[in-house]
Write a structure and sequence with these properties.
- The protein is mostly helical and 290 residues long.
- It contains 14 helices and seven strands.
- A three-stranded mixed beta sheet has the order 1-3-2. A two-stranded antiparallel sheet has the order 4-5.
- The relative contact order is 0.16.
- The chain binds zinc ion (ZN).
- Zinc ion binds next to helix 8.
Length: 290
Amino acid sequence: MNKIKGYLDHLDEMQKQLPVEPKYKAQDVRGLDSPLNVVYELFTAGDAKAGVQTSAFVLPNDEQVREKKGTKKVFLKNMMEAKFAKSLVPISQRVLEPADAQKVSFDAYFTEVILHEICHVLGLNYITLPDGTKTTVGKALKDLNTPIEEGKADVVGIASVPLLVGKGIIPKGRENEIYTTYLAGMFRVMRFGATEAHGLGVLIQYNYLREKGAFVFDPASRKFRVDLTKIKAAVQDLARQFLVLEGDGNYDAVKAFKDKYGALDDITKAVIETLKDIPVDIAPIFRTSY
Ligand SMILES: [Zn+2]
């Protein structure tokens, strides 16, 4: 929990340091729409096993209460740990070169999830179009808003890592774990396809960073690795792309960006095929007495 507070304390500075011209960050960061809570889920029953095992939810469900009092986002840390162990670890062992797979850590994964939630508030929400119309990013980007906003939250979070390392919030020795865990996590999401908004947001990041040489495929081993000499600058470039697309609110430019980077290539498709036997979800069994 202290860690989350550490991030929140630096929210203004994260906004100021975004790798983009001042006009794309000329907005005060308002508090997060939903405060973040981390809990351990000890027991659930009923239909909990019927659907997807959730690792985070937003409460309350009642629309009226939401409107009046707001919401809070709850992370189920033990569910996240279980998903990490059963899904992300085996995926990383299969898609990453051994030296990179070793660096994939729960701590890095958890950091990325929290940073993603926090970074939704960075950049701009309210924009003015070239013809003077005042609108929101959501309205301007229409159906493409969700994948772009989800992608922005991912990559702006990763782009903030050097700042947070500088502040002592993220230990310096663990910075590289974040980049390899980021890549492994992309395969976890891309398994579900690019039709779903978050999948598309991830695919765009993945293809862009590969084009920049930050993610490297070795045809001999058929595995990927992160090029640590390139990843930091590439992530800053990509964060800038997303922030400018949102800030300009130019739907056609967003569509062109999506068309260029939003497709799955054959190599990646083949690698994803090899993940078929890895569980896509967990079914927790709770012990009711200790
Ligand atoms: Zn999100």
